[in-house]
Amino acid sequence: MTDTDQSMNLLDHLDEFRKRIMIVLGAFIVFFIASFVYVKDIYDWFVKDLDMQLTVLGPMDIIYVYFMLAGVIAIALTIPVIILQIWLFVKPALTKREQRLTLAYIPASLILFLTGLSFGYFVVMPLVLNFLFGLGGEMFTMMFTTDKYFSFVLRMTIPFSILFEMPLVVMFLTSLGIVTPKAMQKNRKYAFFFIVVISVLISPPDFISDVLVIIPLIFLYEVSIVLSAIVYRKKRKREQQQELE
């Protein structure tokens, strides 16, 4: 391939990349506008279970909260578009088999992402809130500002949406040969220690809350080992067939 051909190929890739970026930005803008239009309904849904009314410290805080809510919802809705555009960008470099395999990751990653968000919002966050209310209810007048509350919601949900992607990440790293099920089994005690530390840090300091957070994360790690073993066996079998050919 000549230098001219390489330059044209690079320009084609850059043009394709720009196209994917524009699609993602367009989707984000559409979702942001739609979220902003319904931001009051979104706000009401998030605070419907609170026993208090949130406060703001200044007029500009209202705009900040509106933009923050609309932005977070728009990002969440744009994630499927991002994943799809990444897949379409790398698709030409993949074999037919790799295309089918990676395409299966898209719905799985979305399901795990939403499961993590739901676990953080419906399980972990109520535990933490109830603990904090019980801790300071008799000593302090409880009054939350809107921006502080929604920052708290994000801290209680986003980490779990990322942690719940662990099985897919492990499968991908296994297919690249970076991770093996044997290594995961060997380092299980270190992984469990890390999981316990993270769970204790993000959950209230009582045994039941810690257990409710630790068990799902340990279960995810064990599922990751099983999935890694499946991917590893298929990878080894494919490599052996290629050697015979």
Automatic annotation (TrEMBL):
It is found in: Cell membrane; Membrane. It is a multi-pass membrane protein. The chain crosses the membrane at residues 21-43, 63-90, 102-129, 149-178, 190-208, 214-232. GO terms for biological process: intracellular protein transmembrane transport; protein transport by the Tat complex. Pfam families: TatC. Its main location: membrane. One of its GO terms (cellular component) is TAT protein transport complex. GO terms for molecular function: proton motive force dependent protein transmembrane transporter activity. InterPro entries: TatC. Keywords: Cell membrane, Membrane, Protein transport, Translocation, Transmembrane, Transmembrane helix, Transport. Forms a complex with TatA. Part of the twin-arginine translocation (Tat) system that transports large folded proteins containing a characteristic twin-arginine motif in their signal peptide across membranes. HAMAP family: TatC. Belongs to the TatC family. This is Sec-independent protein translocase protein TatC. It comes from Anaerobacillus isosaccharinicus. The lineage of its organism: Bacteria, Bacillati, Bacillota, Bacilli, Bacillales.
